[in-house]
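agent> step 3/5: call structure_predict on target 'Sulfonate transport system ATP-binding protein' (Hyphomicrobium facile).
agent> reason: downstream docking stage needs a structural representation; sequence fetched in step 2, passing through unchanged.
tool.input:
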Amino acid sequence: MLKRIDPRRDLVSADDAVSVAPVAQPTPLGKRLKLEGLKRSFGPRKVLDGLSLDVPAGQFVAIVGRSGVGKSTLMRLVVGLDQPEEGRVVIDGEPVKGLQSSVRLLFQDARLLPWHSVLSNVGIARTPGWREAAIEALSDVGLADRLNEWPAVLSGGQRQRVALARVLVGRPSVLLLDEPFGALDAMTRVEMHGLLERLWLQRKFTTLLITHDVAEAVALADRVIVIKDGRLTFDIDVAAERPRHRADPHLAALQDKILAEV
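tool.output (status=ok):
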């Protein structure tokens, strides 16, 4: 269970407590996401076949399934890069009809521009106040001291942190993660899991994570779904408390149950 600490405790006497201003809490960013009967084909191949899903605001959902079942196609529909043949994507009651400024997508490849510095890569959109926002985002991912360096001198994990900072600058309401840690070594993946979980707990953006790693899914998500034959075929809540421990027998049993459905 997360330990909640009151920063005012022990700093003032009970008599003086009324004079202490309440501690401001970050505003949750997440929005409700609904997928309603999505269908998408490529030629004769039906990739999504009436897929529906309702994700409450701020929930973390992991999507697992074999290669080619439509997971990445689903992400493209949510972000507005593609349109379904039937059905619709709805965010906070508004149908998605094009690119969404409140939705951000993080890929497996960091996709940094090698001729731009770390800071410039994070603030690539050059919106008003971009420099301050980029510095803050780099601080959030632990790279405040690397902002003037070039992507080529960074490790794979550091480059992915830069990519994560780049999506955080836009303060996303919906964060889409398309196997973002698949190319990292085991130790770096664990570190990135901890970083992502911390940022999600702070900001509570609605999150969809595509992964082939079932252990990763149950370590991070509130809920794991399985996609097969273009449909959602399995949906289970992960009730384990945070922070989670990979040796937890409950999580191991849950992994076996999910693997049996993939």
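agent> step 4/5: record observation. The CA atoms of residues 35 and 53 lie 5 Å apart.
agent> proceeding.
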